[in-house]
Amino acid sequence: MRKAFPPHGFFGIILLILSEILSFNNVDPFYSWFYCFAWWSYILTIDAIIYRIKGNSLIVNRTKEFFLMIPWSVFIWLIFESANLFLENWYYINLPHSIVERWLGYAIAYGTVLPGLFETTELLESIGLFRKSPIIKFLISWKIHFVLILLGSICLASSIFFPQYFFPLIWVGFTFLLDPFNYWLGGRSLLKDLEERNPRKIYLLLIAGLICGFLWEFWNFWALSKWIYTVPFFEKLKGFEMPFLGFLGFPPFAVQAYVMYNFISLFDLEGDGKSPLIA
Question: Does a structural domain hold residue 205?
């Protein structure tokens, strides 16, 4: 039996509509902070839809995890912001002059990354996408695990030290590097899923990454405070502010965010590294 649509979903829908209207009319704070309003509205709305479908959602039933996920989302994205000091693939414009307001904006915006990706993934899962997608069962040997760790290390190092040519590898390096550790330490692991003939989570994350990537770029394009890309070789053909080929980076980034979050969850002293969200 389906549950009633929760109040925070109605709030999210109303807030999104209002922020769109007021932003286009240059009304602050919606004009200056449009991106943040849009993403938090989306997260509230999608969570409510998930609850309506299956009677269980991140905000309603896993509230503690939802609020713990926000600072980890900020932390994970700051890793990529730090990498961008070497990559120089994007920069921000029209930021608030106040340092306090600027960093508050960073925190609110970066805090949407994991909730946005995982809520979208759970919505796709809730509607039954890729429900039947088995593959041939196979065993991933320990040698392959070590090769993946080496590959991940090479990807990350080359993207930092030779960013002009290897900058895309930053979006896959942590997946190869960390997922073998998730496997060994008993956490949620994509390698384990593949061994068990269940690639569904990978497929869902890839699609969720593409959806969120489109929304990131769509809402960023209309925002006052926004980022601009300086990606080598792909500057001319763009969708919103993103070079078209750059959209290919969003699906693997979603997979990488999942792997990184699972790795962090291994060190949750109150849990077992197997959060209900990512079960």
Answer: yes
